[in-house]
Design goal:
The complex is a heterodimer of chains A (240) and B (225).
Chain A: E1 10-12, E2 18-20, E3 35-39, H1 43-48, E4 58-62, E5 67-68, E6 72-75, E7 83-84, E8 87-93, E9 109-117, E10 119-120, H2 132-135, E11 141-149, E12 160-165, E13 168-174, H3 182-190, E14 200-202, E15 217-222, E16 226-233
Parallel strand pairs in A: 3-14, 5-11, 6-16
Antiparallel strand pairs in A: 1-2, 3-4, 7-10, 8-9, 8-14, 9-11, 12-13, 12-15, 15-16
Chain B: E1 17-21, H1 25-31, E2 48-52, E3 57-59, E4 64-66, E5 72-74, E6 77-83, E7 99-106, H2 120-123, E8 129-137, E9 148-153, E10 156-162, H3 170-177, E11 188-190, E12 199-201, E13 205-210, E14 214-222
Parallel strand pairs in B: 1-11, 3-8, 4-14
Antiparallel strand pairs in B: 1-2, 5-12, 6-7, 6-11, 7-8, 9-10, 9-13, 13-14
The chains are: A mainly beta (240), B mainly beta (225).
Chain lengths: 240, 225
C-alpha cells in the first residue's frame, strides 16, 4: 500500500483496488507482538509531570486489546477530568534479540511507525503505576498510519515529533532528547526478556500533553513516518 | 509460541495473559498497614493487572531458569480463566458464561517488595509463566470460587490456597476488568497469588495441583550461560 499523503489522496491496495484513505478501516500496520511502553523518557515531559531522573527506564506493557489503527475513534468516558494523547516513536523489532549489546541493537530493528499512547490520569493508582486501567484501555494504543522500513529512516535518533489538537500545534519534541535511546532500550530489555519480531517499543512522549474531549481530532506526526489521525468520541457510540 | 493444549473452543490461546496483583486476601494481610502508606497511600481500588508477555509463556514440563546471580524465585500458583466469548463490560452475574475453561498458572517472579512501579524486570522474564497442563472446560469445575490449589516443592506441600479467599471472585474480577478493557477468546486472566509465595531454588521442582485441573509441573534450573 502506498501513495497516501492526506485523506484526499488515493490508496492503491496490494490487490490492485484504488480507494480513498477515508473509505477503509486502517489496522495497526504489522502483526503486533508484545507492546512495551516507556514512561518519562523525555527530560522535559518528566519535568512536566514533576519526576526526578531515573536510574533505569520506566517500562510497562500493554495488551493487544488496546490496539487501534489510523483514523480510528477512541472513547473518553463521561466524567473523567484528564485524558491525554502521547505522540511516540514506535520501534518495531525485526530479529530475535536476547542479550544484545547497544552496539549491535539497531540490527534488530525492522522499522518504525507512529504511536499515540493514550492515558486517563483520573484512574492512576500507586500500584504498578501507570496501572492498566490508565494505559491499557480499548483504543488506547493507536499505531500507524503505516510501517516504515528501517532502511528508509536514516537517523531515528533525530526525528521531530508533533501533535496537533484540532489543527493547533500542541506538542513538539525530537527523538534526540530521549533519556534512554533506542540502542539503550534494546540492550536493557533484551538482557531479561527475549524480544521477537513484531514486538514494539513505544519510546515515550515529550512535553505538551493536553486534555482531549469528544469531537477532538488528534494528529500525531513524526518526520518521515506520516501523520497518525485519531478522533475522540463520547460513550454514546459505544452504547454506554 | 503458545502450545498449551486447548481441546475446546477457541482451541488456542492468544498468548495474552493478564495477572492480578493483591487479589488474594492473604496478600493484603501480608502487606498490612504498608498499603495505606507512601508510596501507595491507599489499597488498590480497581483491579491492578499486569501482563505476562509471550516470552514468559511455558508449558508443564518446561524448565524455569533462575537468572544468574539470583538464589531463588517466587512461584505464583493461581487459577487462570480462559476466555471463550468476547468479554466487554460484562455484568458480574453471568460473567462466567464468557469463560471457556480454566487452567493452572504459575506466575513466577523475582522476589520484590515494592509494587509502586511496573515490575517488568521481575515478572516478564523468559519462561516465567508456565500454564497448564491443559485447558479444562468450564463445566469440569463445579465452583471456581471454591477451588483449592496445592503447591509442592520437591514433593513437600508448601502452600495451600483457595479461590474462596479472593478479594474479587472470578466473576467479580471479570466484570471489573472488562469495564475498561475487552478480553477476547483465548486470553487468560489469572486471578491472583496467595502470599507469602513459595520460594524455589535451582534444582527444585514445583508441582501445582488442583482438583479437575491436573498438575502443572516445572523444574527450576540455573540459567545456562
Amino acid at each position: 500500500m502506498e501513495g497516501l499523503r492526506d485523506e484526499t489522496e488515493v490508496l492503491r491496495l496490494d490487490d490492485g483496488r484504488l480507494v480513498s484513505g477515508a473509505e477503509v478501516v486502517w489496522l495497526p500496520p504489522f502483526e503486533v507482538g508484545t507492546i512495551i511502553a516507556l514512561g518519562l523518557n523525555y527530560a522535559d515531559h518528566a519535568k512536566e509531570l514533576a519526576f526526578n531522573s531515573q536510574e533505569e527506564p520506566l517500562v510497562f506493557l500493554k495488551g493487544p486489546g488496546s490496539l487501534l489503527g489510523h483514523r480510528g475513534s477512541t472513547r473518553r468516558p463521561a466524567g473523567v477530568k484528564f485524558m491525554h494523547y502521547e505522540c511516540e516513536l514506535a520501534v518495531v523489532i525485526g530479529r530475535r534479540a536476547k542479550n544484545v549489546s547497544r552496539a549491535a541493537a539497531m540490527q534488530h530493528v525492522a522499522g518504525y511507525c507512529i504511536a499515540n499512547d493514550y492515558a486517563i490520569r483520573d484512574y492512576l493508582e500507586n500500584w504498578y503505576r501507570p496501572n492498566l486501567r490508565v494505559k491499557n484501555r480499548d483504543g488506547g494504543t493507536v499505531l500507524g498510519p503505516w510501517f516504515v522500513d528501517a532502511a528508509d529512516v536514516p537517523d531515528p535518533a533525530n526525528l521531530a515529533l508533533r501533535t496537533h489538537l484540532n489543527g493547533e500545534l500542541r506538542q513538539q519534541g525530537n527523538t534526540r532528547d530521549l533519556i534512554f535511546d533506542i540502542p539503550c532500550l534494546i540492550e536493557y530489555l533484551s538482557a531479561f526478556m527475549t524480544l521477537a519480531p513484531g514486538d514494539v517499543i513505544l519510546t515515550g512522549t515529550p512535553e505538551g500533553v493536553a486534555n482531549v474531549m469528544p469531537g477532538d481530532e488528534i494528529v500525531c506526526e513524526i518526520d518521515g513516518l506520516g501523520r497518525l489521525v485519531n478522533t475522540i468520541v463520547a460513550d454514546e457510540p459505544f452504547g454506554r | 509460541m503458545c502450545t498449551i493444549p486447548c481441546e475446546i473452543a477457541p482451541f488456542r490461546l492468544t498468548g495474552a495473559v493478564y495477572g492480578t496483583l493483591l487479589n488474594h486476601r492473604s496478600a493484603l494481610t501480608e502487606l498490612g498497614s504498608k498499603a495505606a502508606q507512601p508510596p501507595y497511600n491507599a489499597p488498590p481500588r480497581a483491579p491492578v493487572l499486569y501482563i505476562k508477555p509471550r516470552n514468559t509463556l511455558a508449558a508443564s514440563g518446561d524448565a524455569v531458569e533462575i537468572p544468574a546471580g539470583m538464589s531463588e524465585l517466587e512461584a505464583g500458583p493461581c487459577l487462570g480463566l480462559v476466555i471463550g466469548r468476547t468479554a466487554c463490560r460484562v455484568p458480574k452475574e453471568g460473567a462466567l458464561h464468557h469463560v471457556a475453561g480454566y487452567l493452572i498458572v504459575n506466575d513466577v517472579s523475582v522476589p520484590h517488595d515494592t509494587f509502586y512501579r511496573p515490575s517488568i524486570r521481575f515478572k516478564a522474564r523468559d519462561g516465567f509463566c508456565p500454564l497448564g497442563p491443559a485447558v479444562v472446560p468450564r463445566d469440569a469445575i463445579v465452583d471456581p470460587d471454591a477451588l483449592t490449589l496445592r503447591t509442592y516443592v520437591d514433593g513437600v506441600l508448601v502452600q495451600t490456597s483457595s479461590t474462596a479467599d479472593l478479594v474479587r471472585s472470578a466473576a467479580g474480577l471479570l466484570a471489573d476488568v472488562t469495564e475498561f478493557m475487552t478480553l477476547i477468546p483465548g486470553d487468560v486472566l489469572a486471578l491472583g497469588v496467595a502470599w507469602p509465595a513459595p520460594r524455589v531454588r535451582a534444582g527444585q521442582r514445583v508441582d501445582i495441583v488442583a482438583d479437575a485441573l491436573g498438575t502443572l509441573s516445572n523444574d527450576f534450573v540455573t540459567a545456562a550461560r
